[in-house]
Amino acid sequence: MEVPVLSADLIARDLSVADSVVRRKIIALLGPSAYRSDGSYDRPFVAERVFSDSTIQHKLESIVHPAVERALFERLASLKAAGRAFAAVEAALVFEAGMDRWLRAVVVVEAPEQLRIERVMTRDGVDAASVRRRMRAQLSAAEIRKRADIVIENDGSPAELEPRVHFALTILRTLMKKG
């Protein structure tokens, strides 16, 4: 059985554009430059501001995280109503956002630092210094590992990662049925 996956990052991206309250609060915090002339969210601009000023970062998180949490609760309730008793929430900032307090288990997929830097540079088109600034603004890998219920190493290809994730989800599904 396939496990539904809800992406907190995709929800946050959607809310930053589609939710008028979230959008208005972001503009109040960062100014109109947080959005391009076409109405899209200017992620590079926002990232530069947020990851160079922890006060702005915390204020933005106080806007976005509660909205994402509400949306996740709504989507999880819909899945439950549709008979889906098990779902995964993908969230890079699970601990920073406090999601761990209501998740039944936290599985962390971790890669070596240099590989993470390279992947973010490729994904976001940013330089290594920018990625390191982002990483410094987040919990350390050691702290995340300590808080996780399960840690999966992601030091290879997606084909190598998939069976590891499948195994972890199988274990969790079994434990959830018993608990």
Total discrete domains: 2
The CATH class of the largest domain = Alpha Beta
CATH homologous superfamily (4th level) name of the largest domain: P-loop containing nucleotide triphosphate hydrolases
Spatial ordering of strands, largest sheet: 1-2
Order of helices and strands: EHHHHEEHHHEH
Mean pLDDT: 92
Biggest β-sheet description: 2 strands, parallel
CATH second-level architecture of the largest domain = 3-Layer(aba) Sandwich
- Give me the CATH fold name of the largest domain: Rossmann fold
Note the beta-strand portion: 5-15%
* Shape field: globular
Radius of gyration from the alpha-carbon trace, in angstroms:
17 Å
What distance separates the N and C termini? 19 Å
Class based on secondary structure composition and strand pairing: mainly alpha
Written account of the structure:
- With 179 residues, the protein is mainly alpha-helical.
- It folds into two domains: 79 residues, Rossmann fold (3-Layer(aba) Sandwich), CATH 3.40.50; 76 residues, no CATH class.
- 60% of the residues lie in helices and 8% in strands.
- It has eight helices and four strands; from the N terminus they run βααααββαααβα.
- The protein has a two-stranded parallel sheet. Strands 3-4 form a two-stranded parallel ribbon.
- It starts with a strand and ends with a helix.
- The mean pLDDT is 92.
